[in-house]
Every structure is written in structure tokens, then in C-alpha cells.
Amino acid sequence: MAEVAAAEVPPMKSEQITQWLAAAPAVYQWSREHPETASAHQITDITQLSEVFSQRVRASGKDSEALSQLLSKHGFNNYDEWSQMFERLMLAVSALNMRAKNIGPSLRDAMTQLANDQDIDEETRDRLLQEYAAVMKTIEVLETVPDEDINAVAPFEPQIRAWLDSAR
Question: At what angle do helices 103-116 and 79-101 cross, to 10 degrees?
Fold first, then answer.
């Protein structure tokens, strides 16, 4: 799901989010019992969540019948399907929070001010602009998240955040 495209994927439904939330603790527990499915590196591209997680499970050789059965109890056909929903949820929750905090326009304004600030040496300004540009790439992805997905996750955002906090 490297790119968010509303035309390719139907909007999320509350039933799907509920299914994902019900399955998440069980998948988390399964992954703790199979630490070889984890990775030592951080995911830096939010649009790669499902792909990276699915690759980890397949590479570990633990894409097992037990995991498939666990997921099927919660309405998912396989780990890829569950992790794709995870990615969509994370994108939608992140987009929801970004919009609430007006981060996109604020960062664009900050970049413009920084680019025109003659009181900062050129090397520092260029370094900061490069750092901001990397953040802008994520913001631009989040700006493409369909409104329907953002609206669907909004009522579940506290539950999703609570689960993420507990899974750390």
C-alpha cells in the first residue's frame, strides 16, 4: 500500500476497525512469542508498515497456521490483510492528528520563513530545510489519506492510541 489512493481501496468501515482492534492484542502476543518476527531497525516510511511487517513474518518462517487461525477468528484472511489494515489505521490516525494540529500549513510556513531568514548561516539553513523536507514527505502522504478513512477512525482514535501505548 505504498501510496494512499482512495479509488483503489474502499473506505474503512467501523466493523473493520473493531475487528482489527480485537485481533491486535492476540497478534501482539503472537509476535512476542516469536521474537524472530521483529526487526532491529525502525520503520521510517509510514507507507511501508504493512509491507515490512509482512516481510518480517514471512522471513521468520513463522507465517504459520496458528497465526492464520488466530486472524481468521477476527475476520482476517491472512497476516497481509491484517497488516494492511494496520497501515491504513496508522495513516488515518496520523492524518487525523496532523489535521487537528494544523501541522502541514504550519511546517510549510516555517520552511518559507527559514528559507528567507538571512540571520541563519547558509549551511545551517540548508541542513534544517533538508530535515524539514523529509518531514514534509510524510505530511504529503498523510494529506492524501481519504477523508472517509479519517472520519472512520476518529471515534476509535483513543482505543487505537491506548493499544499502541500498551504494545510498546
Answer: 60
